[in-house]
């Protein structure tokens, strides 16, 4: 894993944005993206008469947030990320968007009623009957700000599916850096999953973000699993992920501790799928019968 970004470097990066004129420059280029703007067109759009002042603040943004090419200016990826974060309201309105409890399906543990809610930038699904936490994950406020409350479970499930696929394919959900996956059983890492052998931790090599997922969810997009679900008439886009009990609560046994290997047995509609996972939660063998 890469060393954490030093505080001084973070101060330097955020300091580049601590000016209204610089933010306006970024917003103007965002509105123009993917087209570029010349110096004169950009200054005219920002509507500032002092060319020297404008030139100074524009130069501060180059090259980290703005790229200059052949006399034209356009946003870098980092520049688009900054404006995207503002558009998503992640940095501004997380406390202002709230969705009270709405029905979210059936509990995999007690068959009680699940409830979903959104507050402080986090979506949660838990059971009203047994009080078990089913899943919890941050979601950008703009993802839920303009939906009907009843649609929250569906939106959350699709978001959870997206994040799961992103992590299982090796990309951080925050910075898109590479992540390392590891089964936490037999380690000092505290399990978050209801069944500790199924706990998988993803850690970003760049930003250090850590996320825990159920191994059954991690293997969801493996061809052997997707074909089993498809043949059972299950479309992951149209169900609540947390209701896939056969996938999220399979039979699990330890094949070996060194090297660490787990064996999962999934029963669905009269069929059985056996999966063998290595210590990175990668499927190394499977058998459907």
From TrEMBL:
<protein>
    <recommendedName>
        <fullName>ArsR family transcriptional regulator</fullName>
    </recommendedName>
</protein>
<dbReference type="Pfam" id="PF24042">
    <property type="entry name" value="DUF7351"/>
</dbReference>
<dbReference type="InterPro" id="IPR036388">
    <property type="entry name" value="WH-like_DNA-bd_sf"/>
</dbReference>
<feature type="domain" description="DUF7351">
    <location>
        <begin position="105"/>
        <end position="283"/>
    </location>
</feature>
<dbReference type="InterPro" id="IPR055775">
    <property type="entry name" value="DUF7351"/>
</dbReference>
<keyword id="KW-0614">Plasmid</keyword>
<feature type="domain" description="DUF7347">
    <location>
        <begin position="12"/>
        <end position="85"/>
    </location>
</feature>
<dbReference type="InterPro" id="IPR055771">
    <property type="entry name" value="DUF7347"/>
</dbReference>
<dbReference type="Pfam" id="PF24038">
    <property type="entry name" value="DUF7347"/>
</dbReference>
């Amino acid at each position: 894993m890469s060393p954490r970004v030093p505080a001084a470097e973070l101060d330097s990066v955020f300091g580049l944005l601590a000016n209204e004129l610089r933010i306006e420059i970024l917003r103007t280029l965002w509105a123009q993206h993917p087209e570029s703007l010349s110096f004169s067109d950009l200054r005219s759009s920002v509507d500032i008469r002092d060319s020297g002042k404008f030139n100074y603040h524009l130069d501060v943004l180059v090259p980290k947030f703005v790229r200059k090419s052949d006399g034209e200016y356009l946003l870098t990826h980092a520049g688009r990320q900054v404006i995207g974060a503002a558009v998503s309201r992640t940095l501004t309105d997380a406390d202002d968007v709230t969705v009270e409890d709405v029905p979210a399906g059936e509990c995999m543990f007690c068959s009680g009623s699940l409830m979903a809610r959104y507050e402080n930038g986090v979506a949660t699904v838990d059971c009203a009957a047994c009080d078990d936490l089913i899943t919890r994950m941050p979601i950008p406020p703009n993802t839920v700000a303009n939906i009907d409350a009843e649609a929250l479970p569906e939106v959350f499930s699709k978001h959870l599916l997206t994040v799961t696929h992103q992590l299982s394919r090796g990309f951080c959900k925050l910075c898109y850096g590479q992540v390392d996956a590891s089964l936490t059983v037999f380690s000092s890492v505290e399990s978050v999953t209801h069944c500790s052998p199924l706990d998988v931790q993803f850690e970003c090599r760049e930003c250090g973000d850590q996320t825990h997922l159920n191994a059954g969810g991690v293997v969801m997009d493996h061809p052997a699993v997707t074909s089993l679900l498809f043949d059972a008439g299950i479309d992951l886009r149209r169900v609540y992920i947390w209701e896939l009990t056969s996938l999220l609560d399979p039979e699990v046994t330890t094949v070996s501790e060194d090297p660490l290997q787990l064996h999962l047995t999934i029963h669905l509609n009269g069929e059985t799928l056996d999966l063998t996972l290595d210590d990175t939660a990668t499927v190394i063998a499977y058998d459907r019968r």
